[in-house]
Amino acid sequence: MKVLLINGSARPKGNTQRALEEVAGALNDAGVETEIAWIGAKAIHGCTACGTCGRRGDNKCVFADDVCNELIQKAGEADGLVIGSPVYYAGMNGSLVSLLDRMFYAGGSLFRFKPAAGIAVARRAGTTLTADQIDKYFQINCM
Q: Deepest in the core among 7, 13, 49, 109, taking most CB within 10 A?
């Protein structure tokens, strides 16, 4: 069994990474293989609702110059998914929103019925909304 953990922070070694490392450690102790993927600090395209991914049916987004298609493939191959985000202005990191919109639109069928969890990391308020934003992707895809 393998679980993919996605770090939705622009900071590679920040608090979101630390939280995901704790989850990965607990999963590893239970005999579950894990991989933590970082979305990076480079720009991530937002979904344009072009529908190309649906027409092609190949579970790939038309934009191929960022991490989206790689993460769709990894999440599709994994048995479970954990997504972590820092809280920015009482919500998810904008780059992560763009990524998840595209990942779940283009590759959502690959994720159906897999166990999933969201992690929100904040110094102040906003964790409830951020966790709810992440969970909506899972709920819509029967995860």
A: 7
